[in-house]
Design goal:
3% of the residues lie in helices and 43% in strands. The longest helix has 5 residues. The two termini are 25 Å apart. Strands 2, 7, 10, 11, 13, 14, 16 and 17 form an eight-stranded mixed β-sheet that branches. The protein has a six-stranded antiparallel β-sheet with strand order 20-1-26-25-22-23. Strands 6-5-12-15 form a four-stranded antiparallel β-sheet, with no helix packed on it. The protein is mostly beta strands.
Length: 270
């Protein structure tokens, strides 16, 4: 009887294609907040939770309400030539109804909660010619647009704790998904079992400074759940199953996590 090993792990989110891409170049963040680069938060390709795109990056520090915060595009990280940069525009949406334009802007949040900052970089009208390639090689067309989404928490005090996911999945505990890279192994036999096993997803141990009032699971197959504990069986045999979770506390602070179930053979072929 041949068995397929399935592992569960956290993954890094990256969006890229020839003409429109996520705003990282070689893994480096293109945005600085108060002069520090943002960092990769949590990711999976095109990952969403019930239609909401998961932020790709997270702000590097803690920030207080009613304080000015600077946002800057690190143009040295953008994958285009100096000539293209001259016609590039930058549009910011701070997630609170306010917007700004420019490579260097500042903003003051008037309310404490979690926000998602959206940055759109437009390189203008280009032709696929040598002058849009930073290395002069002309091997690949550069993007006309780049996007970046950044999770930022505006706190009432610096000791406020954002909701932290503490998960139990298929009996395996994950105390901190932002640090742990778990490999939760279980077996199912494709010869005798039509679909993968029925798995218990438990986030009831998650905690923070505020009471968690919203649990939102998205299993990537059209099924969602708003329960802290939920069982789910996928209805199709696939190499990958992406499961997303968003927690929100009573004060409007949110955190996200993505867990992937994947057939080991899918990675052995990489």
């Amino acid at each position: 009887m041949k068995k397929l090993l399935v592992i569960v792990f956290l993954v890094i989110f990256f969006i890229s294609n020839a003409r429109s891409s996520f705003a990282h170049s070689g893994g480096a963040s293109t945005v600085k907040i108060n002069y520090k680069h943002t960092s990769v938060y949590i990711s999976d390709e095109y990952a969403t939770i019930d239609g909401e795109t998961i932020p790709a990056d997270i702000a590097p520090d803690k920030y207080l309400v009613n304080k000015s915060i600077s946002f800057e595009v690190d143009k040295s990280k953008l994958p285009v030539s100096e000539e293209v940069l001259k016609q590039t525009t930058y549009s910011w949406d701070f997630g609170d109804g306010k917007k700004a334009k420019g490579d260097k802007v500042s903003h003051i949040y008037a309310k404490t909660k979690s926000y998602v900052v959206n940055l759109e970089i437009n390189y203008g009208n280009q032709e696929d010619s040598g002058n849009v390639y930073p290395d002069g090689m002309g091997a690949e067309p550069q993007p006309q647009q780049q996007f970046q989404t950044i999770l930022i928490h505006i706190l009432p005090s610096l000791d406020y704790k954002i909701p932290l996911e503490k998960l139990v999945i298929d009996g395996k505990t994950i105390n901190d998904p932002t640090k742990d890279r778990p490999r939760l192994s279980f077996y199912h036999d494709f010869k005798f079992f039509k679909y993968p096993k029925n798995i218990l997803y438990d986030s009831s141990r998650s905690s923070g400074s505020g009471k968690i009032v919203s649990y939102l699971w998205d299993f990537g197959d059209g099924e969602v759940s708003k329960k802290a504990k939920v069982r789910h069986r996928f209805k199709e045999k696939l190499y990958f199953y992406a499961v997303g979770l968003k927690l929100t506390d009573e004060n409007g602070f949110s955190s996200y996590v993505v867990v992937n179930l994947a057939d080991k053979k899918a990675f052995e072929s990489d």
